[in-house]
Amino acid sequence: MDRPNNPELRPGDAYVQSFARGLEVIRSFNAQSPRQTLSDVAARTGLTRAGARRILLTLQTLGYVESDGKLFALTPRILDLGFAYLSSMPMWNVAEPLMEALVEEVKESCSAAVLEGTDIVYVLRVSTRTIMRNSLGIGSRLPAYCTSMGRMLLAGLSDEEAMALLRASKLDARTRYTLVEPEAILAKVQQARKQGWSLVNQELEEGLVSMAAPVLNRAGRMVAAINVSGQANRTTARQMQDAMLAPLRQAAQEISQRLAM
């Protein structure tokens, strides 16, 4: 089971173990395991069957889990937890119309994401069409090391912090173009920090080109990134940079300015 890496957040007087175990049970459900038996949940979380059963029945009583008597599954009510985060962050209300205008201008999909551990998490998406084999929605996660928004968000950290996350990542060669050496990826992160934008050309998926720009809060701290993505057989990386970089950076700047009001 994953444990908190921050020493200040490790189990202590303020750590509610039963709550943490409940979250581990929720996280054990995913696209590969949408329905699980009690034994499955216990094995995936490291809990005893009795402990897993108590948590599952509690979640079922609260309406977050359903069961047919053998298999357990999350219910749509679990989305309340994610939407609580989105509704508590006014930036997404600010960002959405500007992202829609950007999509209308460049005719490519636009997304917003935040950094969470070694991944980026999608918090907003405005699509024109499906450009990846796996369609992305709010809550989708992708590795930071080989995505344009990931590298942009890593650029908001110090080199030491970015390298620590890269070394903690599983650096797989997802395509023949994917950089997998931490030092080479860090160089791209440093370049993104210097120029204020990031471009990733077919490293996440063959044929996918993506560019990202930072979203800053009132204090000037990077809190999110937005991107535009397209297909290399339609728009090369050079063409995307020439035609879409200026509108992308303008949209990111306008979102940042509205957050500062």
Automatic annotation (TrEMBL):
Pfam family, one: IclR_C
BP term (GO), one: 3,4-dihydroxybenzoate metabolic process
Keywords recorded for this protein, A-Z: DNA-binding, Transcription, Transcription regulation
Coiled coil: none
Molecular function terms from GO: DNA binding; DNA-binding transcription factor activity
Keyword Aminoacyl-tRNA synthetase: no
Residue ranges of every copy of the IclR-ED domain listed in the record: 77-261
HTH iclR-type domain: residues covered: 16-76
Keyword NADP part of the UniProt annotation: no
Protein name in the entry: Helix-turn-helix domain-containing protein
Organism: Ramlibacter agri
